[in-house]
Amino acid sequence: MPKRKDIKKILVVGAGPIIIGQACEFDYSGAQACKALKEEGFRVILVNSNPATIMTDPLLADATYIEPIHWQSVEQIIKKEKPNALLPTMGGQTGLNTALTLAKKGILKKHNVELIGASRQAIDKAEDRELFDKTMKKINLETPRSGIAHSMDDALKVQKDIGFPCIIRPSFTLGGTGGGVAYNIEEFRSICEKGLDLSPTTELLIDESLIGWKEFEMEVVRDKNDNCIIVCSIENLDPMGVHTGDSITIAPAQTLTDKEYQNMRNSSFKILREIGVETGGSNVQFAVDPDTGRMVVIEMNPRVSRSSALASKATGFPIAKVAALLSVGFTLDELQNDITGGLTPASFEPSIDYIVTKIPKFAFEKFPQAEPRLSTQMKSVGEVMSIGSNFQESFQKALCSMENDKFGLEPILSKSDSINEKLTYELTFPGPDRIYYVADAFRCGWSLEKIYELTFIDKWFLRQIEDIVNEETNLIGTSLNGLNQDAFYTLKIKGFSDRRIADLLEVEESKVRSYRKDLHVVPVFKRVDTCAAEFKTSTCYMYSTYLGKCESNPTTNKKIMVLGSGPNRIGQGIEFDYCCVHASMAMQEQGYESIMINCNPETVSTDYDVSDRLYFEPITSERILDIIEVENPDGAIIQFGGQTPLKLSKTLEDYGLTILGTDPDAIDRSEDRERFQQIIEKLNLKQPNNKTVSNLEEALESADAIGFPIVVRPSYVLGGRAMELVNSIDELSVYIKKAVGVSNEKPILLDSYLKDAIEIDVDVISDGKEVIIGGILQHIEQAGIHSGDSACSLPPYSLDERIIKRLEDQSKKLACELNIIGLMNIQFAIQNGEIYILEVNPRASRTVPFISKCIGNSLVKVAAKAMVGASLSEQKFSNLLPKDMFFVKEAVMPFDKFPLVDPILGPEMKSTGEVMGVGKTFGEAYAKSQRAANKNLRKKGKVFVSVKNDDKKFLNEFIPKIIDLNFELIATTGTYKYIKDLGFSVSEINKVQEGRPHIVDELVNEKVDLIINTSEGQQAIEDSASIRRTALRKKIFCTTTMFGAFALVEAIASDEKEWSYDSLQEIN
Predict the structure, then answer these.
(1) Are 496 and 400 in contact (CB under 8 A)?
(2) pLDDT tens by residue, 426-474
(3) What is the mean pLDDT of residues 528-545?
(4) How far is CA 142 from CA 139, 180, 462, in A?
(5) Could you tell me if 808 and 776 are in contact, meaning their C-beta atoms sit under 8 angstroms apart?
(6) Coil, helix or strand for 645?
(7) Which tens digit of pLDDT belongs to each residue from 1047-1068?
(8) Is residue 64 predicted with pLDDT exceeding 80?
(9) Distance of CA 393 to the CA centre of its chain
């Protein structure tokens, strides 16, 4: 069946910001879909609020709207663009829910827009828990014993029938948001209350507990002619009870019998047919009782999912691309398999002759109040994937990809631990490091049976881990020279890294590498081909192993290697993958062969058709050198992948490989305190007073000279890790005592905190001769909030031209001094007209994609070309912003996943993603950014104001403005008196510790519509934490800075009826 001729224009709805449960895998799938549909001649209209993605690059769609993914905003775009069809299955749960709302409100029918990829009925059947349960019963498939609840009374009745423990899952939410496992009535009430609040349909599914059962997933694709294929089976190493996004997963499934596999395969096809998914990719999840073999269906997603990205990268089969083409009428047998160069059709079910392992990455260290335990609600922020010839090789390569300073199954128990108690707890209540504790249990002599009884991890996997531990035990005490070629091959085939072998033998890693090469034990590179080598592949998508013949076949072309950014995490997210993709494309445009190395399955950089050659490998010195020795590249780009590739600069320099762009020494000059101070003095610039200290005594002495408040942090950190604002000697003492391993090698940095300062980000681009300012961003929150967590505006919304000119001059001076070739980011603070330099990063920053979207010019692509000799003038680079337009970048926080955490902003970065607001005024752009971040900004009502003493001076200007917007005022004692003295009407309310009724009672009773709450000092912050937590739970807008409060006033004042909706192509 050929493509449909009645469709000309297709609206693709994206997934919005990166959040826990919905990450960059939807950038990958959305980018694939847009590219495929555009190539087929459709006019592609994209709406997505995320500026950090490749998907929102103007080249991918014909009309790119960076607007809130909210039905009202999407309706305006539909009115303007008049699409024939809407594709909702590439935008995760956000895209699906938005499409459903548009359908339910009659907007799609009104504008003659057809849902393609999944019908409204199919979405409802799959996502509505009650309908899904009935549908499964109709086709004789079993689901867990369960009941549906739309109220707390309903929930309690269902629980009585099912008993404890039970699993609560809200309808139409993502990543298990709002769900959990309840073991008692108190937990049950708490989870149900949150779940009912978060479900858009106020619906809960309450299941019998399947904790300990084995969990499997099937990635299924179906077309209009009822051709169905299984792209990949996936097995969770962690049993039921841990969300699949937080579980270690393996593809293909390892412990199913052929009969069980065929049963799941056939059941998956039955489910797709009955749900009514006529075209596209779906994900079906099953649970199997390890004792009886009973199989139940957990859920199905009628869209591309998190696992779809993993399955695509695991097999090479482009699920999103195929799903997009099926949605417009093609059938599987009509589509060619790109990987085999068209030798096989897409209806040819993928077959793989290797093992893939995915391990999730967590960020519990950012949220110390959160309980680091895994449950049915997803908490991971990223993941890695690895490929090997067997499970052990694949698994150990994945461990090396995690960037947690572990290079295998290293011991994790500390000497102070009570071993039996600690192991029992860690194995019974899964946390992010459980797999390391499993290995430690074997080291301690625990039996496989005992470990199984505590973890319910399948015994097959436990035997594999036990064998790795036994190999390590055998190595200890051996000399390097005592290993012959066969012994070395055995270790490498089982996935042992050179670094792990070195640690076990107590020698340097370089000696292990050298000795291994002397023995001619070197890796080969195999190709991912979708067909287990049955057909030849023309695609250079490779992985290393120690079995078989090398299939790399490197060319003698000019080539440049781009090192990726590794797993997604807080502080190093999708924006760096965006940079790596653009660097690769730039190299190809300049006539070089581009080689991408990365280990993140969620991203566009690891798509097989982005670079000329892709190596899916850990970004470690061992693996990078292995690839260099095969490929012999002309140079490497390491400045675009965040800190991950920068850490390998010495390895590359020692090898003799040319590092393109800025000399790595410039990075050291900017990060080393003493060397950077020399630059500051030489250029006659200013820095806040600062000191570097190695112990408590030095810290107390330096604090006296600097003066409080002080920003304290470890040296060489990413994302403001462990950065705090301290206000007294006592708080500083507590911080230093908490900081593990403070020494001359790991000093602590103290900086004077600049009160009421405006923070500025400046991105600079240089070819080594000419320096141009890429963009100047004014932060909306004052200095002291991490730059990654602060909203910011381009152009600056309140700086005068003289300050801007001085910022430009100072930025250019620094770029020339550091001899920048490529990109540089500088963070400034402006206090009372004085400009202070906070930080300089001679590399790509997280603001680069945002600025690129604003100016309509890819900073990274221009910078990468400059690295290989193309001047800025030759490239005709322009940094001009569109006239009379404002662009606001807002951070998106994960606090809803961690209810015990205080949702207050500070110097340590906590955001997982970002959104962008575009408008004719700053107020419009800021208001749109808040809607895009899913914040409920009410236009009138009651505002609660409670601010620290230093902020009271701002109330003189703020209070009349907020009153003019029809808000009534309530305040706690100190703020109440100040407002009263200003002559304004205000009601007084108790603080939480002053007696009832207090402010939290008012919030719970929904009597407050807006909160302005600023605090200073640990005690005051702790005292007011319940206000902010309650605001988050009740969806009441809360700002914790006064600069944010003023921005809020402009947003509330903007008239939504006057908002503009322009595509990036129109703006630029």
Answers:
(1) no
(2) 999 999 999 999 999 999 999 999 999 999 999 999 999 999 999 999 9
(3) 78
(4) 9, 22, 29
(5) yes
(6) helix
(7) 999 999 999 999 999 999 999 8
(8) yes
(9) 26
Are 297 and 142 spatial neighbours (Cβ–Cβ below 8 Å)? yes
SS3 label, residue 181: strand
> What is the pLDDT confidence band of residue 703, given thresholds at 50, 70 and 90?
confident
| Strands 280-288 and 382-388, sheet pairing | unpaired
Helix (H, G, I), strand (E, B) or coil at 17: coil
Bridge-partner residues for 19, per DSSP? 22
The 114-115 sheet, strands edge to edge:
63-65, 43-47, 9-13, 85-87, 114-115
Q: Reduced to 3 states, what is the DSSP secondary structure of residue 985?
A: coil
Residue 709, preceding peptide bond in cis (omega within 30° of 0): yes
Note the Cα 477 to chain centre separation in Å: 42
User: For 437, what's the count of Cα atoms within 13 Å in the CB-facing half-sphere?
Assistant: 23
Where does the pLDDT of residue 393 fall: very low under 50, low under 70, confident under 90, or very high at 90 and above? very high
Q: How far is CA 976 from the centre of its chain?
A: 41
Task: Give long-range contacts, CB 8 A cutoff, 24+ apart: 397-401.
Answer: 397/357, 397/495, 397/497, 397/617, 397/618, 398/248, 398/357, 398/358, 398/359, 398/599, 398/618, 399/359, 400/497, 400/499, 400/618, 400/620, 400/623, 401/359, 401/566, 401/567, 401/599, 401/618, 401/619, 401/620
Query: How would you write 581-606 as a 3-class SS string?
Result: HHHHHHHHHCCCEEEEEECCCCCCCC
Percent pLDDT > 70 in the chain is 97
- Indicate whether 416 pLDDT > 80: no
- CB-CB contact of 385 with 599 (8 Å): yes
pLDDT greater at residue 740 or residue 674:
674
For residue 210, what are the CA distances in angstroms to 252, 292, 296, 1026?
A: 22, 13, 10, 34
Is pTM beyond 0.90? Reply is yes
* C-beta of residue 840 within 8 angstroms of C-beta of residue 671: no
Q: What are the DSSP E strand ranges found in 71-189?
A: 85-87, 114-115, 146-149, 166-170, 180-182
Residue 170, C-beta contacts closer than 8 angstroms, at least 6 positions apart: 177, 178, 179, 195, 196, 198, 199, 203, 204, 205
- Bond before 360 cis per omega within 30 degrees: no
- What are the angstrom distances between the C-alpha of 927 and each of 102, 917, 965, 1031, 1049? 22, 7, 15, 19, 10
Residues 1040/1043/1045/1048 CA torsion (nearest 10 deg): -120
For residue 76, give Cα distances in angstroms to 82, 556, 884, 917, 1054.
Answer: 10, 52, 21, 15, 17
Residue type, 521: V
Spatial contact of 731 and 1018, defined as CB atoms under 8 Å apart: yes
Q: What is the pLDDT of residue 441?
A: 97
Dihedral in degrees, nearest 10, Cα atoms 871, 872, 877, 880? 180
Spell out the alpha helix ranges (H) of 716-825.
729-738, 801-817
Sorted by sequence, the CB contacts under 8 Å of residue 121 that are 6+ apart come out as 276
DSSP single-letter state for residue 255: S
505-514 b/e (C-beta count within 10 Å ≥ 16 → b) = beeebeebbe
> Which tokens hold the place of 411?
């011991």
